[in-house]
Amino acid sequence: MRILISAGEASGEMYGAELIDALRRLDPSIQFFGVGGERMRAAGCDTVADAKDLAVVGITEILSHLPKIWGLYQHLIREADRRKPDLAIVIDSPAFNWRVAREMKKREIPTVYYVAPQFWAWRQGRVRLIRDCIDKALVIFPFEEKFYRDRGVDATFVGHPLAELPYPTINREDYAKQFNLNPSKQWITLMPGSRVKEVRMNLATMVDAALLRSDCEYVLPVAPTLDSQFLYNQISLDKWGDDRSEIPNIHLVPESLPALYHSRAGIIASGTATVEAAMMNLPFVMVYRVSPLTYLLGKPRVKVPRFAMVNLIAGFENESEEVVPELVQHNFTAQNVVLKLNEILPDGPVRARMLAGLGRVKARLRGEGLAGAAQHPADRAAEIILGMLHGRQAL
After folding, report:
1. CA distance 236 to 231
2. Given the DSSP bridges, would you call strands 111-114 and 217-221 parallel, antiparallel or unpaired?
3. Is the pLDDT of residue 137 over 80?
4. Would you list the DSSP string of 272-336?
5. Rounded distance between C-alpha atoms, residue 156 and residue 137, angstroms
6. Which domains does the chain have, with CATH numbers?
7. Burial of residue 353, with CB atoms counted within 10 A of its CB: 0-12 exposed, 13-18 middle, 19 or more buried
8. Which pLDDT band, with edges at 50, 70 and 90, does 272 fall under?
9. In angstroms, rounded to a whole number, what is the distance separating the alpha carbons of residues 306 and 322?
């Protein structure tokens, strides 16, 4: 059996790799090809296009990348026609992947959307694109199943893949030695986003906040979609202008989870990284900024009261609950970030409430109460997908 799998961005590529591993455990003979990155290639996917080339953010920013994205799309469809997959899986990246799904529908290839688009947050009318092109939606947030089912989509909540992340095994002392950190100081993790445009919009203010709280040390994980030298240049440019000889207090590291696990707090851009921070029980301040034009065009379409995913999940049962503070667009200033950090760094009621809220979010994302609750979400998804494959073979 052959599966087309299309994942864009760092998070989607990670979920794709986990899903490939889960499917291979059930049936080692399945072959995979499509759009992905290093993790999916390591899992055994023949990538005909790289996920990095789809990692574009913002309404206005996408326009300049359209020719390249259109070329990747056409190449993928040609490969699908040549290889004739038995099933297609698309992961996140709706602007690209619903078009892939539409082409698969024309070819009568069953298609699964794993990590369905967040159309509940904005442009809810676009659910029809999923309803018309997708055979099964496997959703990772608990409130999404009802949202999609109410609109005619066959959706099943399988749990969030990040909810089963194991804690890192490296201890704090060894981690400090490895990355030249001072173990006696409090560490704060900076995560400005996994795309170049996000970093350019968010990192400078994070660095300014770090200057205001110079008593802490800062850890900046390098996303797989980014280049370390690019981050070094951004940090040193923000701090020292043309003098890039030194980057005090900010340490680049290769992985996010150990940084989050051993830090005291985080400054985290809206997105998957906020869920990672919650899974590592890290109190944090959520921040985000886009270009003024993108914000102006996008704000009227937003249908949810909050931006941070942990707040949306908590609000599923209690709309008034806010687990983490949100600083978006003009509210995202270094001074505001530090004010919020000053509340959550010390032990006390604010930090305790946040930790309790993060714990509730983690339990919901694990899918507690689901059948087979001990399973990893990717394993639940793989069982459903394999059932669809076997059903197609029986026809």
Report:
1. 9
2. unpaired
3. yes
4. HHHHHHHHTT--EEEEE---HHHHHHHGGGB-SS--SHHHHHHHTT-TT--SS-EEEGGG--HHH
5. 6
6. 2-159+369-394 (3.40.50.2000), 172-365 (3.40.50.2000)
7. middle
8. confident
9. 9
